[in-house]
Amino acid sequence: MKSNIALIAIGIVFLFGACQKTGYDENSIPDEHRFTQEVFLKNLNEPVELEVLPNGQILYVERKGGIKLYDPASMSMILTDSIPVYYGFEDGLMGMALDPDFINNRWLYLYYSPPGEEAKQHLSRFTFDQNGIRDEKVMLVVPTQRDECCHTGGSIEFGSDGLLYLSTGDDTNPFKSNGYAPIDDNKEGKAFDARRTASNTNDLRGKILRIKPEADGSYTIPDGNLFVDDDPKTRPEIYVMGCRNPYRITVDQKRGWLFWGDVGPDAGDNDSIRGPRGHDEMNVAMTPGYYGWPMYIADNKPYAKWDFANASSGGFYDPENAVNESKYNTGIKNLPKPRPAMIFYPYSASKEFPMLTLGGRTAMTGPVFYQEKGMDSEIGFPSYFEQRLFIYDWMRNWIFTIEVDSTGSPSDFVPFMPSVDFNNIIDMDFGPDGTLYMIEYGTAWFRQNEDAKLSRIKFNRGNRTPVMNVNISQSIGSSPLEVTLDASSSIDHDGDALEFVWKLGDKEIEGPVFNHTFEANGVYYPRLSLRDEAGNWLMESFKIEVGNDAPEISIALEGNQSLYWPGREINYQVNVSDKQDGSLGNGIAREEVNFDIQYMDGLDQSQILGHQLPVSSGELLISESDCMSCHKVNDKSVGPSFVQVADRYQGDANAMNYLTSKIIKGGSGAWGDHSMSAHPDFTQEEVVSMIEYIFTLNQEKEALKPLQGSYIAKEDEYKKELVFSAQYADKGGMGLSSISRLTTLQLKPNQFMAGMADSLTNAPANRRNVLNRVYNQAIMQYPEFDLTDIAAIAFNMNSAVDNEIKISIHIDSEDGEKIGQLIVNQSDSDWTERTIPIKKTSGKHKTFVRIESDLDDKVLLKIRTIKFIPNELQD
């Protein structure tokens, strides 16, 4: 007991001293290193909204109905409950909020899709305690349709005045309007015209509603909404109308302003007939108003009055005279003047807001920060953020904080934690301790994701939290598995000594390095607690899987291991073995091994070697884009699987042109449920490469290349690298993950431009990599090449002087062993191939070319290409 008290006292002294020494300026832009993301949970199943309880526990809900309560103090889930929901399309449990007097009444509000035949959403109040939810009171019913997708909204927020705000989506199919305004009132059913909802004053969809909850579970209408209560063609609950999918909203608790992100349509280009391309919006309402959808978007850019039946335009909607002429409109015809968006941006770079980058987009607004009494003065956010709004994008994974002035104009866009790779942030809010709590949905739609996280971001004023870096010797293998977890590269930005405590089961080890031999098969999670002298700490668990070894793959070539020659035969053999699965033909079938021989131009080979699938430049581009957020290789996600795409367009002569245009410009209708986001940042060549990769996914097994054979390099692919790649994913099993391994072997063409060197001295290269000015004492250094069986090196060149010029070839260094030399002593204005026989050399060596003469400051040579000549091709 005494020792514990002493340790606490020492910690207080350290902390006080650190804060005094640092003297942090509360109003300055914080150093990113002062923020720490503390991850509580991973592998969540479609989390959508969170609330931090007054006692610091975190309540969050999942789209399929889950209700979870996590306690950071005990680092454990203390409650798991659920509510039955209909979760087709985007429906489900969408929103949650605590009553302002939750600490006394324990009331919890949920917005969800009840199961059953009737299509509707419920806003309900429940009583919540440590046993779960009970005593439902349905406060508000929003009729919907379940024949077509999409747009639910569903975010719930309270203002400081106790009024409840609820966002609702336009409940309209966006895919039949080619990414422009869905205003088709000719189709059977009503789900293709958003005027019937978002611009209908007598409908609750496509809105943000504002009501006053009453103690009996009913609600009343507060003063100051958009419409009065006695007009039969308006709904008095409406505060904001003209929304498409206002998925996340927030209320400024001091100024009373409403902020929201509205997810926009998908057209990638402006169209002179149909109207503007799609934009996402972030909006502010200081007073009730109409925000234009589906007749206007962004800064009130108008859409055409498009006749879908006749494919003709009746002109454009007038922002000065907004009129809802839909035959499904049950409200008033003449609407309030639409308001422009506060922030708006398309798929491509925004002229107005270029800092918001480009690509896929899903705009959301987070909280407005205010320092409050009772916030944790050590980890709560500083006063720099006072009255700043947090905005974020689910697809682009950025967060900005901004200022919004009394006119609703945004300014001072400051990136927040820009070096952190978030995984689709779906909700964030400040807790009573002043830290930012966050849910990341994860990379795949409509499923559980390993990278879906519940976390909080803390701030360190006086002494920053250490940065944990852990190297693991091996995280997979058969038992007994010896593993070293080394955290010695962890750093502290304040130079503090660090304390490391590892925990595995009941075993606890201090020190940066943890060595352990895992004797039994299974999955283990050794945990590291990292603490500095000021008491700042981090905790992280690491996954170790015992009982499965990684496959071993090799590609053997006969002859030269670095170069290839067009028309020359290359003999190869692929070998695959796995300790648990066996070997080729003995437990591993040919069909289970992906093997390819490809030509690549300009691909970063370092990225290939870390990739875990058969390699192509198109696949690499897909993996580094937002494509995998909506598509999977074999499984349907939001969009079809890549295999389904390959199957549909097999044999279609126009498929390449059609898909190239669709990926770049965006589009909809081909697969029914979701539209293709525009990708204007891709070049046509990049998209073609991606489509070519997708089309390979439905190749018949009979077309598989043999794992042993000969290959003749193609003349028409010359100048590209020739890459052999083999990949195998083992069978895993017994609770252990499958392990995939890839091996590649790259051969360069035997001839290349002379300027493609590792370094050049006294011989600058032009844009075409030709050495047009080679001077005395020039040195060209080239990468390691296998010189086995190389008889000569030829230079395509011309000499500019009649004086003697010595060209010598060295290996390993510029003064290394000389393996060949040529004397040139006459000028030659024509390009001529000069061949230098070289000494018999084996193995891989860096190659150096030296140029020497007695002439200084005068151009001696021009060199265009260098060519390696093997023995049998030497004259």
From TrEMBL:
Per its UniProt record, what Pfam families does this chain match?
A: CBM_6, Cytochrom_C, GSDH, PKD_4
Sorted alphabetically, the keyword list is:
Electron transport, Heme, Iron, Metal-binding, Transport
Superkingdom of the source species = Bacteria
Per the database record, which ranges form the PKD domain?
Answer: 495-546
Positions of the Cytochrome c domain = 613-698
Spans through the membrane: none
Task: Give the protein's recorded name.
Answer: PQQ-dependent sugar dehydrogenase
Source organism per UniProt: Reichenbachiella ulvae
Q: What is the lineage of its organism?
A: Bacteria, Pseudomonadati, Bacteroidota, Cytophagia, Cytophagales
